[in-house]
Design brief:
By secondary structure, the chain is α+β, with helices and mostly antiparallel strands. The chain contains five helices and six strands. Helix 1 crosses helix 2, helix 1 packs across helix 3 and helix 2 packs antiparallel against helix 3. The protein binds zinc ion.
């Protein structure tokens, strides 16, 4: 675990990422949008507010989307595990309970994004990402992120490519 000193410009990108996340969550709660639509609308709204450029908003939106993709991938795996463990008989009979339906629709919702974007596995220095563990692809050093941050270089070997887990 390495402490990160962030300059004001870096903090601005992190704030923007969080703003888009907050707004996209509100739009999703209103219930009429897919995740893709909510992310796009949140970015558009924030860009048209004038505080950030469209380019900044699109970049932050792309970082956020990637983090959601990773969560969706995990969720889909654990959904299948949970359903198989909780309801082997129903699963065999092809019948879904309310729990299974809920897990399935939530996981599918996020997992759809994962299916459509396979090349999201690398995280790079300078990008903004949500809390989780980054592992340096070169030396294996782990960085535990407790907050949304801009990714620093590897504190051990100074390389710039990571894998992420949660
Ligand atoms: Zn390293």
């Amino acid at each position: 675990m390495t402490e990160q000193k962030q300059n004001p410009e870096e903090n601005e990108d992190v704030r923007l990422y969080q703003k888009i996340a907050d707004r996209a969550a509100e739009l999703l709660q209103e219930g009429r949008k897919s995740i893709d639509e909510a992310l796009k609308k949140a970015g558009d709204e924030i860009a048209s507010g004038g505080e950030y450029t469209r380019e900044q908003a699109e970049k932050a939106g792309a970082y956020l989307r990637r983090d959601l993709t990773e969560v969706g991938r995990k969720l889909k795996q654990s959904r299948d595990t949970v359903i198989a463990a909780a309801e082997p008989h129903r699963l065999a009979a092809g019948v879904q309970s309310g729990l299974a339906k809920l897990l399935t629709s939530t996981a599918d919702f996020l997992g759809d994004i994962a299916d459509r974007s396979e090349k999201v596995l690398e995280f790079h220095t300078g990008e903004v990402t949500s809390p989780g563990t980054l592992t340096c692809k070169d030396c294996g050093k782990e960085l535990r992120l407790k907050a949304t941050v801009r990714i620093p270089p590897c504190p051990s070997c100074h390389k710039t490519i990571f894998r992420k887990s949660y």
